[in-house]
Design brief:
Number of strands: 0
Radius of gyration: 13 Å
Largest sheet: none
Distance between the termini: 50 Å
Number of domains: 1
Shape: elongated
């Protein structure tokens, strides 16, 4: 059985992925940072997502100047 904390982390992880696909980068980044995953596969994927979010936000901020 999955613990309540782990369930919340998994929900945050997948919701951040959905928000990323919807181009809601700010909220996707917030959820990615809040997901505290114990499995190495999820940890690596979250780190990759966080890097993508930061690169996209930086590019969007520079293009609006």
């Amino acid at each position: 059985m999955i613990s309540v904390d782990e369930r919340e982390n998994i929900r945050n992880y997948f919701e951040s992925r959905l928000l990323y696909e919807k181009k809601d980068y700010d909220n996707a980044l917030k959820l990615a940072y809040s997901a505290n995953m114990n499995q190495i596969t999820f940890k690596l994927d979250i780190k990759n997502l966080q890097k993508k979010y930061i690169m996209i936000r930086t590019a969007l901020n520079h293009s609006s100047l």
